[in-house]
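tokens incoming
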């Protein structure tokens, strides 16, 4: 919003931009008006997705911004959660902010929770960071697969990560030079043909048995999520995309599998379990940890100097499970901190997790019992994708409606 504005409300916005998500620009740069003052404006319910720039910014060159209420700001940002900017273009210019109220500002820098340096990341680098950050405890010594030409930004990130090999359709010269130095020259780098198509039939020999089946060549699309059986029918576009991400991840995961995703990112994968509900419990537990990594009490942990990033990740993983730790585990955790932390209470855990809207769950087969839905609800899951055809589909749908 530019210039004169009064007595308004901006509410319930979600998204990401390369600039400010919400900006009140009373006057800036070459934009000046006789009465550019802004007053009595409420900004309520703003979610900055995918590591946006600044969530909310108030900017003034000479005009006044008064009685501005900013509340319930969530998500992640790369620069500032809330910014007050004085644009001094001419001598004598001043910014004027008066009666500004901040309440419930819970946005956090995803860089801090993922122990990332302050540097701009390319789209490919951001995609890798988000994928790896979905489960830090299960990503040591990983294999990296990239669907685009690998650039220097991603190579810089990989240079400091524990990784054994990478597969990509191409490499920028600077990126390739960096990767050749990784692991003292022993890092494995593969270039693939992006146009390659696997044979239609897959064959496997096991103890004299020859197994053959058509490969899974399904391309997950929005059409897979059109049959909505619950009373609630609306599926926002960003949620639809997140459901697709979760389902694509399941396609390449050992069954039985359940995946939780949020804002286009996998945040909890429960794979290879004999029972569907155990998959759900595992996925939800990982998702809860992902949310709690961004809790203010977690971000306030004071690590001892010289602690390596894997050790920090282990401390965070234990800290968010404080109530479940033994005395020995707590003692070991405290050895890596400079001060005794303030644990996240049960009530704070519930309140924090419930702030995140649009959490999705996808299952690689039908959900047989309502206990999966009940457990997912505790992790604030609001959208569920499953194959259906269970004998208890009606009970599962009823649980979702509840």
């Amino acid at each position: 919003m530019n210039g004169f504005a009064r007595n308004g409300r901006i509410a319930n916005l979600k998204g990401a931009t390369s600039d400010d998500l919400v900006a009140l620009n009373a006057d800036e740069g070459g934009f000046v008006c006789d009465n550019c003052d802004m007053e009595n404006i409420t900004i309520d319910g703003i979610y900055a997705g995918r590591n946006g720039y600044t969530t909310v910014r108030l900017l003034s060159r000479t005009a006044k911004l008064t009685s501005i209420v900013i509340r319930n700001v969530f998500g992640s940002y790369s620069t500032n959660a809330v910014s007050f900017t004085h644009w001094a273009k001419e001598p004598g210019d001043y910014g004027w902010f008066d009666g500004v109220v901040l309440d419930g500002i819970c946005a956090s820098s995803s860089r801090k929770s993922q122990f990332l340096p302050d540097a701009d990341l390319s789209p490919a680098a951001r995609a890798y960071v988000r994928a790896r950050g979905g489960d830090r405890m299960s990503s040591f010594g990983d294999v990296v697969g990239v669907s685009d030409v690998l650039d220097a930004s991603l190579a810089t990130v990989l240079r400091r990560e524990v990784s054994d090999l990478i597969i990509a359709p191409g490499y920028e010269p600077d990126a390739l030079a960096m990767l050749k130095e990784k692991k003292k020259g022993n890092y494995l780098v593969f270039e693939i043909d992006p146009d390659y198509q696997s044979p239609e039939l897959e064959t496997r020999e096991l103890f004299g048995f020859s197994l053959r089946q058509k490969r899974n060549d399904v391309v997950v699309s929005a059409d897979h999520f059109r049959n909505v059986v619950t009373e609630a029918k609306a599926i926002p576009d960003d949620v639809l995309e997140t459901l697709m991400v979760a389902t694509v991840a399941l396609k390449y995961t050992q069954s039985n599998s359940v995946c939780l995703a949020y804002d286009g990112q996998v945040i909890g994968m429960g794979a290879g379990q004999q029972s569907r509900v155990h998959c759900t419990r595992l996925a939800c537990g990982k998702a809860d940890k992902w949310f709690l990594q961004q809790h203010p009490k977690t971000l306030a942990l004071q690590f001892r100097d010289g602690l390596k990033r894997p050790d920090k990740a282990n401390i965070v993983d234990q800290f968010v499970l404080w109530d479940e730790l033994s005395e020995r585990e707590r003692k070991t955790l405290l050895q890596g901190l400079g001060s005794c932390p303030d644990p996240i209470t049960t009530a704070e855990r519930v309140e924090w997790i419930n702030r995140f809207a649009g959490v999705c769950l996808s299952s690689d087969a039908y959900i047989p019992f309502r206990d999966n839905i009940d457990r997912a609800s505790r992790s604030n899951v609001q959208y569920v994708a499953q194959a259906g055809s269970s004998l208890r589909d009606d009970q599962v749908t009823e649980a979702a409606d509840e």
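note: The chain has four domains: 5-108, 114-215, 218-295+344-402, 296-343.
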